[in-house]
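Suppose a colleague, Dr. K., hands you the sequence of a protein chain of 664 amino acids and asks what its three-dimensional shape might be. Before reaching for any lab equipment, you can write down a predicted structure in token form. Begin with the sequence itself:
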Amino acid sequence: MFLYHRKHFVTLGFLIAFAGLFVASCSNSKCIPFNFNTSIPFSFKYGEQASPDCLKQWTEKTQKRTLDKCKTQYTTTWTDPKTGLEVRKVAVVYSDFPVVEWTVYFKNNGMTNSPILSDIQGLDFALPVADNDKCILHGNKGDFCTADSYEPFHDTLTVGNVMAFAPASSGKSSDGPKGWPYYNLQTGGKGLIIAIGWPGQWVSSFVLDTSKKIAIKAGQQTVHCYLKPGEEIRTPLISLLFWKEKDIADAQNLWRKYYRAHIIPHFNGEPQQPILQIQVSGREQDTTYVKKFLQAGIKPDICWRDAPWYPLDNGPYKGGDSWLNTGTWEFNPELYPHGVKPYTDWIHRRGMNFLLWFEPERVGDPNSWLGKNHPEWLLPGSSHGGILNEGNIQARTWLTNHVDSMIKLQGLDWYREDMNGVGPLPAWLKNDTPDRQGITENMYVQGHLAYWDALKSRNPKLHIDACASGGRRNDLETMKRAVPLLRSDFQWEGMDNVVRGNQGHTYGLSSWFPFQSTGVYFYDTYSMRSFYLPGFGMGGLTPENTAAQHQAYSECARISHDMLYGDYYPLTEYSIDTHHWIAWQFNNPKEGTGIVQAFRRDDCGASAMTFRLRGLKLKAHYKIIDFDSDVQPVVVTGKELMEKGISVDIKTKPGAAIIKYQKE
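The predicted structure, expressed as tokens, is then:
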């Protein structure tokens, strides 16, 4: 049983976690129970035995440790006296949110190879539901560089129907139509948000059975392996957030608050702040390019250097694809004889940060430094070269030391990591034997996270940008360490429905990520406003588009704070159709501010729509500011805005409106 107060900020009287049974009690009398009475919310097979039969015979102990004022950790360990296998569940219970998360580890402390471990589920429990409760699973598509990436779904569970999810066969954790590792399971007037942390190939399923129980499972997609002495593998991180007496929008806003408090990386006690960025070549002489932005009144927070900045000439890829010749992580001496340190010094003196692109996992050039000096570190089988095996301690140690030295010597503020091609999964699978399936991936994922943690430990002010051909690696473990500066590669001219698609991306992804980012390369108001986010960038500054870029950067800076800190409310149904409006609201109740973004598409007949706002104070008065109006702002009550609504008039087709409000 998991108990919590109906308000998400609570003072918990006591907290017990025992063998996976979590109980929290409130100090006041009005607590709401949510049935979570499973003793062990994970499962596995050990040899021919199922985990319940194993664990009840093994020795068990639990330790409690306070991590900080909001988090208490419970570590429960089971040990097999015969083989020395240790199963360790590390769970964290939060006192300020109705959240529990855990990871399960399997370590062979014996002297010989263990029996086969298989069917490992980091999450495995049955959730009872009332007979009259309708069960709806809410989620999104992942990113696959199309207009309908991040499209939300709301599917009703029916008895016997299996709803299964997994990324595209790439090893990228948020890749493809079924590749979104976040869900909101609604049963009647309560629900459960589930998040999976695994920057690899995971799988999940939801099944409603005839006894009115929902069987929920999630884990690494393929594990069937023995462990050598001393080896340790782990399950994906599982996070559960419980909610009740809310609608879906309010439940998602509870998640957004939790995300800001405990998931997104923090700096100086604050979550990652909104940023403005520009992409530059990074050469010393290109300070002239940045000066053009500064002279136009546009001061970016980040100057971004993407590929390529390393030697390219000897690789197999030519022309426009030469940037794929990765594997020598040194600056091209012909272009950057002094690296980028003179350039980073210049931008630091002007109060800006510098970002440098890396793609260390893919070694695209067999003649590169890695290809020639350490071919034994590379896993064959992927597209566009080999995969640097981050599960290899020697390879990871070299990578960590090398990149860390570049961060320090070159003055890097942001480390941008990409992963292109089909991904690492084919190489992982090719490297496995029949009795060691999944071991390469598991060791690799552990090494990948350890690499990022080492960079952060050695450089506490370092920011990490997660990218994998866009937003295809945005699972929970990744988002605890990084932010997505490019939520999708779907941003370029010539892509079908690219502007409307990005409106849809914002609509779907805002329920889950308070911070997201992208870039826009269109210079009309309708298109630019379709890309505004807490992270926003443009490029290609010319005399012809200077005014447009100044408008876009200025407008985005005025609304990005509320997009990050506000509650998110869709005001229309999701659609990327040309005949439909799309609109949403970000409401920042703490500061009494908010915004409405509305878009009238090409074939929308109605020139005006009325939207009832949410989250306002009934008796408060709000000043309404239309970004496109020179008329004196009007002041209306919260009651009127929520009950009668606000009318948005867009005379052009297509057209976009931004309405900002602030409490008087």
